[in-house]
Amino acid sequence: MAVELNHTIVHARDNRESAEFLAGILGLDVGPQWGPFIPVATANGVTLDFASYPAGSITRQHYAFLISDEEFDAAFARIEAAGVTYYADPYMSQAGEINRHHGGRGLYFADPVGHYMEIMTRPYDAHTR
User: Fold this and answer.
1) Cα 125 to chain center, whole Å?
2) What pLDDT sits at residue 55?
3) pTM of the full structure
4) What is the CATH number of domain 7-128?
5) What is the helix (H) or strand (E) element at residue 65, kind and residue range?
6) Which of 115, 120, 121 is nearest to 63 (CA)?
7) 62 has which bridge partners?
8) Burial of 108 per CB tally in 10 Å (0-12, 13-18, 19+)
């Protein structure tokens, strides 16, 4: 069997709030709670299991999602409608802009805990394929 990422745990202050926030932006479903986890499954089978932790113990992480142009348009509309600040760069210094790396579009935004979420329509290595 080839090695595949199956799931990862995403630390949150409120696991339901964070799961619903990301699922809402990406147009995904929030799964039923399983133990301490609130899952959000992606199309490639990787599940993000949101778990509540004390705020002081949470280290910000970066999660990047490859989506279609149509999904980007829908997610971008939801980001704007919710008033979520977005950025063209991972340093979050180019507010209100999107990037056009590798012939696609991308942006970054923070979830309720401050994790760096990224949506992009082309993978970073698209120019080499």
Assistant:
1) 19
2) 78
3) 0.92
4) 3.10.180.10
5) strand 62-66
6) 115
7) 116
8) buried
Q: Alpha carbon of 56 to those of 30, 60, 119: distances in Å?
A: 25, 11, 27
Residue 24's pLDDT is 98
Looking at residue 19, what is its pLDDT? Answer: 98
Domain ranges in the chain are: 7-128
Question: Two tokens at 37?
Answer: 């986890």
Helices then strands, counting H and E runs in the chain, come out as 2, 7
Per-residue pLDDT of the chain (129 residues; tens, 9 = 90+): 799 999 999 999 999 999 999 999 999 999 999 999 999 999 999 999 999 999 788 999 999 999 999 999 999 999 999 999 999 999 999 999 999 998 999 999 999 999 999 999 999 875 554
CB 108 within 8 A of CB 89: yes
Q: Which residues contact 9 (CB under 8 A, 6 or more apart)?
A: 37, 49, 50, 51
Sign of the CA dihedral running 76, 22, 69, 91: positive
Reading the block at residue 129, the tokens are: 């394929």
